[in-house]
Amino acid sequence: MNRSRSVPPGGQAQQSVAKLAFGGLGGAGGGAGLATVLNTRGGAMIMKSVSIFLASGRRASAVSRDRTKSGDRCQSTADRRRQQQLQQQQQQQQQQQGGRRESRRNRKILAKMDELNGKLNPKMLEMYKRRTHFSKIEVEALCKIFRKLVTNATLNSKALAANNAGVIAKAGSSTDGIDRSVFRELLHSTFDIVTEETLMERIFCAWEKGYEGLPIRLEGWILGLSTFLKGTQAEKTAFCFRVYDLNSDGYITKDEMFALLRNCLIKQPQDEDPDEGVKDLVEIALRKLDMDKDGKVSFQDYQEAIAEEPLLLEAFGQCLPSDRATVSFLSTLQAQEEST
């Protein structure tokens, strides 16, 4: 008895369709027709999917472009705001700098006017008191003396010009400070410094550091007198060294010693060769002052030698006031303080 597997209705058709679809057994014509149908439907589905994808891509691109444009507009607005802020800051800085320059210029003008009048504002007065060995009253008295010296020099210059047609008064001489002639007369008559012209000139040039050879200003006048009259040993040592260092190279050489000592010595008629005596003095001074034995005296050599023997401070000529002149001048300042 033959047993056969029962096939549900339509089962063979489904199997045939599957076989045809996947290249199974079946008629060539039927398989081709079914494949065509399937291919047509599948192509339509694919085209529809592609269209939907492209449409969504276009919408996304449009949104992205809109966002980009909006972002660019926001960025451009932010950039303009930052640029405006920078410009405002630059303008404010320029105004502040201009104000500071104007303020400094005004302070300089006022300071110059005070200097010419021999007056000091309270801040300058306090500053000079801290930087010197003088009291406030002494600083004020020195300002008055400075004003008198400059005024007298100006009047003398104008009088000389009026009496001598060939002499022209120096324009603005009242603003120059204390010149050489007034300073030398002051050294001789007030501070008892009796020395030759070369040393007088060196004292004038070394008086205000940084302004060598120029008329002495009010600041240089006060600071210089602080060292000159009340200076410490170190301050006076530094001042004397600047005086003796003729070419300001930081050393006192044998030639400079010779020039200073030769001018200080009084020549005697019986001396056949006075320069020989000067050379001997130079060798003696060199042995005393040249601490490192290099043939010249540096500032360090000079400091060490003066610390050991203070009497060598003015070894090459007088450049500090006598004790009597110092006491007399300070007494004048103190009298000014008491009268005030």
- Strand segment tally: 2
What is the typical, i.e. mean, pLDDT?
76
Radius of gyration, whole Å: 51 Å
Largest pleated sheet? 2 strands, antiparallel
Q: Give the strand line-up of the largest sheet.
A: 1-2
Apparent shape: elongated
| Structural class category | mainly alpha
N-end to C-end Cα span? 157 Å
By DSSP (H or I, 4+ residues per run), the number of helices equals 12
**Uncertain regions: pLDDT < 50 for 5+ in a row?**
1-35, 167-175
Q: Residue share in helices? A: over 70%
Q: SSE order in H/E notation? A: HHHHHHHHEHHEHH
Structure description:
By secondary structure, the protein is mainly α. Helix content is 70%, strand content 1%. The protein is built from twelve helices and two strands. A two-stranded antiparallel sheet has the order 1-2. The N terminus is likely disordered.
